[in-house]
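Feature request, filed as a ticket because there's no other form

It would be nice if the structure record came with a short human-readable summary line next to the tokens. Right now we just get the raw output. Example of a typical job, pasted below so the devs can see what we mean:
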Amino acid sequence: MAEPLSFVSIEWIKPLAKQLRKIRGQRAAAVTALSDEFGDPRLLLDYYVEPHCQHHNPADYHEDDGPRSAVKTQVFPFLNQFLAHKALTQDGGNQLFILADAGMGKTSLLLMLKLAHLFAFWPQGHACELLKLGQDSLERIAKLEHKADTVLLLDALDEDPLARGRIEQRLRKLLEATCHFHHVLITCRTQFFPATGLNPLGDPCRVKVDAHLCPMVFLSLFDDHQVEDYLRRRFRDPWHAGVTRRLNPDRIKAQALLRSMQSLRFRPLLLAYIEDLLKAEGPLDEPYRVYQALVGAWLLREIRKMNRQKLDPIPSEAELWDACRIVAVYLQAQDKRSLGEDELKTLIARAPGIAHLQYMDFGGRSLLNRNSARDYRFSHYSIQEFLVAHALREGCLEQDLNRCSAHTSRLKLRVTAQMFDFLRTGLDQAHVLASLSHMDGRDLPQISLVGLGISFHDPLRNGGCGPEMLVVPAGDFIMGSAEEEFGHREEEQPPHPVIIRSPFALCRYPVTFMDYDLFCTATDYELPSDHGWGRGLHPVINVSWFDVQIYAAWLSEQTGKRYRLPSEAEWEYALRAGSSSAFFWGEAEQRADDYAWYECNSQKMSHPVGEKRPNAWGLYDMNGNVWEWTADHWHANYQGAPGNEVIWRGEGKSDDRRVFRGGSWYSKPEFLRSASRYRDIPGYRHCTLGFRLAQDLYFTLFT
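Raw output as currently delivered:
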């Protein structure tokens, strides 16, 4: 029986490291090229610990008591088995997705495979190419020869600018372009990967992208044994430890520190900087503090080196923080990873303090490196993301953008899941609200600013406050329903893509009698009837579309903010909250009792808002209780509908029917579907009909 092919092995690490120290000529040039793009392989080989992999997302399990999963296996044997098996068809079986969070070793794993090939540890007759995904990837892939004998390694789909806001289209092109290769490995952050492709037919080992059904695997968090293995390699005991039992004191300190970091101790990237983290003061129990300590220790180390070099003037720690932060903001706004020398000179002209970065010590444990083309780049993308999150958290994002360039200040920053992770604690909501106009969250259809709990009440000039508003992120979705959907009606077709280009705020609850009565009292406007069901926190009813316009204008005048009815597209987008099923909670109408007041449970009356469960973005009563007016004029179907969030107007007649959404206490389940819509004349008032308002986050009535 033929011996199984082996493409990577933990037994090769030491001989690989030994050969790497002696390389010359072409191999040395190849290693330099790898270092420029993927980091120094020498540092990788010295302390590399083989990760595990699994078929279920580690984020689905609680981490703080240690990573847990149903099945885990060592990643090298898994990859050897995958690479040795030749797929007979080109339907995706030879194209593997490797998913993991930031700093989990995705790039390091591909680099290990490439090093094993470069130093001839691979089976004969197999080539290997490692590429960072980017603007020219398809052209570079097309030029590669001997595709059928080549293993293609594609790193960082989440950093690919051509996947920004259109990842599924990018995936289709990449899979079509690489189906003729022997095997393909594509890495991506888990949060960036499109949820629509996961778990076809309930199989967690496969992902479906059009006709391609590809295998998929997640890198596991390290466990305590792997962490200890790394520490033993990093902090070796003295030769006499077996006799004297004197262990390396730095390892003992590192063990104590890592225990305090809870689940963060299982992330390989942070282990690589453990010596810097040991110098930190205060708790390191959440990602922002860990990275803050990491960057702080690095900058202090650089200042000490500049002192030894007798540079004049010596920058302060605050000046270096500013310089690094501005560079990170510039790169994020440009959707880039590296900064050319000419670009640096332009930045220095606008912010002279950035010049200090030229005198830093690059390489080794530095968080800012230079490649052979002399471009600057942060050692890991998460460092860049942290510095942008730091600008947002400190309230200086807009200032930093303006210091970059006039052009950059008009760009929107790509918002990533990792940046959200950095911002989950200690966040000043005012800073976020002030910076929303600079954010682009199109890559985050399932992760919203709502997840940060950003909500607010605007104070009224006459005293009191307006309704609670919740921030809804920018994004995209498919509006309408397919013919086969339960309860589908002709006015819901054709399903069509819609882009919500900017974040906006939406009432967390339907506007209540308490909110509306405040307006009526202040303006002597007619009080609507409550039908004897109660006022207070009951949703206001018996209000026409025209009444809502007058209330919104009053609220805008009272707060200095622009309140308005949401467009129909904004309303459905907010209801769906990233879902694509018939109901925002799934396909089962039987679960409606948990989320809505409707004909089966309402006792033929409205109920106080907030008593049922919210959708994924924290919005209550979007289904049932009362129908809700939107700004749009009625159209019999979506032929010619706008592809963004704008109001779809009719012929301009004052009696053109207007759209309302969501169903009411009187509705059957099919009217609770996300795509369901209805209409009436704008002067219509009814006991099943209310509203909620939207707010433009960047419009100020008074300056």
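Something like this underneath would help us a lot:
Residues 62-69, 699-703 have pLDDT under 50 and may be disordered.
Residues 10-219 form a domain with the Rossmann fold fold (CATH 3.40.50).
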